[in-house]
Amino acid sequence: MKPARARAFTLIELLVVVATLVIAVAFLLPALMRPRRYATGMYCSNHLKQIGLSFRTWALDNDGRFPMQVSVTNGGTMELVASGVVFRHFQVMSNELSTPTILICPMELAFARTMATTFGPQPAATYKQVVFKSDNNVSYFVGVDADGTRPSMLLCGDQNLAINGVRAKPGLLAVPTNSVMSWVKPRHDGGGNFCLADGSVKQVKTPGLNPLLVETEVATNRLAFP
Known about the structure:
Layout: H1 11-60, H2 87-91, H3 94-97, E1 140-143, E2 154-158, E3 161-163, E4 166-167, E5 171-176, E6 181-183, E7 191-196, E8 201-205, H4 209-214, E9 220-225
C-alpha cells in the first residue's frame, strides 16, 4: 500500500494565513502595549512621589526650606542655582533619597542618560556600580524657586517639555506664567508627570500644562533642566 501523501498549503492559502496574522497583530498590539505604558507611567509617578517626600523630609531639618533656598555652607545648593546644574540639588538629599535609581524615568530614551546606582564613591565590590555624578544621571527638572508654603509650585517633573514651541535646553530657564508649554514626545499616555511643592504628583497632558503653570501663583517659574 502507498503511504498517504500530506497535503501542502497552496500559495493562496498561505497568503490568506499571513494576512490574517498581520490583521490580528495590528488589532492586538495596541492593547498589549498599553499595559506596559501604563505600568511605566505608574513607576515614574512613584519615583516622583519618593522624590517629593525626600524634599519635604530634607526641609523638616532645614527650617522648612528646600535645598535651593539653603546656602552651600549649610548643606544646601542655593549658590549653585544660577549655574543651572540639576544633579547637585538631588545629591545633597542622598540620605533621604536612598538610591539614585529613582531619578531616571522608566520611559527615558535619551542615550546620554545613565541610571546611577550609588550616591557614594565607587565601592570595593565584586561588581561595578554607577556613581551619581552628573546631570546625565537625572531625568527630571527642578523648580529652583519651589516653596513649601506654596503647595502648587512646580518642584520637579519630566524634562521633555517645550516652552513656546522650543524644546527646553539643559540649564536654568525662566518660564513666565503666560508661556505656552507642551510635551515633546509625551511619555505617559500622551502626557507627563509633575511633582508639586506639597509632594503631590499629577499626570498632565498638553492642554492641562498652562493651567498648571497659572496655578503656581507666581509670575515666573525658574526651572533647571538636566
